[in-house]
Amino acid sequence: MWVVDRFIKEHNHDLDPPREADKKIPTALIGFRDDTSGGLENLGSVETNDGSHMKRSQESNIGSDWYDVLLEYFQSRQVEDTGFFYAVELDDGRCRSVFWADGRSRFSCSQFGDAIVFDTSYRKSNYLVPFAMFIGVNHHRQPVLLGCALIADECKESFTWVLRTWFRAMSGRHPQSIIADQDKAIRQAIAQVFPGIHHRFSAWQIKAKERENLGRLLSIDSGFKYDYDKCIYQSQTAGEFDAAWNALLNKYRMKGNAWLKEMYEKRESWVPLYLRGTFFAGIPVNGGIKSFFGTLLNAQTPLREFILQYERGLERRREEERQDDFDSSNLQAYLHTKEMIEEQCRRLYTLTVFKVFQKELLDSYGHLGMKISEEGSSVDIWCGSVLCRHILKVFQMVNIRDIPSCYILHRWTKNAKYGFVGDVESDSGGSSQDLKAMMVWGLREEACNYIGAGAASLERIKDLPNEGENAFQTSKYSDKTAAPIMPIRHNKETTSSIRMDESDKK
After folding, report:
1. Among 227, 379, 411, 503, which one is most buried in terms of CB atoms within 10 A?
2. 377 and 263 in one domain?
């Protein structure tokens, strides 16, 4: 037990000058919703933090007047979309970070949530709205929205809350990989919410840091850029990378560069050599995914216009996806060979992914294959998404005429969003209500696919209503009870391990 012996009012050190930020805390924010009975009980989800708020700044990057506008918007969306999810973080009675995802985003995550991008670039670019997004890659290699957040501040607790809330909204589906900034708070939050996940640093942020820490050398010595890129992107083994890295530091006298030292220690999160074997949905390691909202959002976008532009950008992206779905179902790419394997992949893959495969197939003819051993029946090669030219060359050598189904990743096919493929309930910890909402979106997508397939001719369009009515009348659910929950595949990592049995050779 401690006993106060005496108390001296005067400070025994110089006081820090008041920060400008401390002067600008809005009084409306301090008093916002102190009388929470006025509306917080109507929130979709309210969470308080675990007591760590005593260590956090009381200031929020989200203006106090924004919450009323956002909650009004969220509640109106819930009326239209039963799968709409939102949550507000409470800290000592005050609203802080906000998260939301509509039914379509939650359904998309069940198909394309295996590799995600946690994009906080708007937050880092002095935008009026501290906006962050969860982005996936769909079966057309387009960005697809998996949830949004407004983040109150830069501390670990805020990022942890956002990541946990996204995880809960997606019924506990664990991604295989995540691309995000290398900020300490973000790294710690990711490690806490997704232990064991492979966190790859954002290429956009790395390039910005390169300009900041190596800009002078990059601008005056083209040789440094060549050696730097060669070390990072062409090293094939850890020993080769270490040797090239040390040679780089010695040649350009950079051993004392603190940033390079830090990046070497974190090399497993950004150097391609160390990222092999992890699925990133085809997002290049030296690039990124194109901006989801493009130029619709800028640094001067105020809140009400933000909501309007958000809706506009979301609809634009989803219309692009619908158009690509239609094109992949109704158009055929030109075949460059007479190989059965090319026809097989044209039939299965979307147009965009088929073109990626087709390039690998054509490039395989430029490689020379040589048999070096007949022992064993398998070889492990990582290709990421579609089979690479090297594996296709092996297929040609051993006369495999089509690709075994285990090497066709379902998420890249025309039917990625459709069909009874797997059991979502066994893959997630979500509530039955959450699962039902996502399955409703699944049924909507199935119906759109059915209608799109029938729109090829006037005769088919005329037949569709009768076919739908007949199917409903013969269904055991024709008594208008709730439709069954449609199981959805949970995409799992597929490595390109070739096992060549006699049954595979045709």
Report:
1. 411
2. no
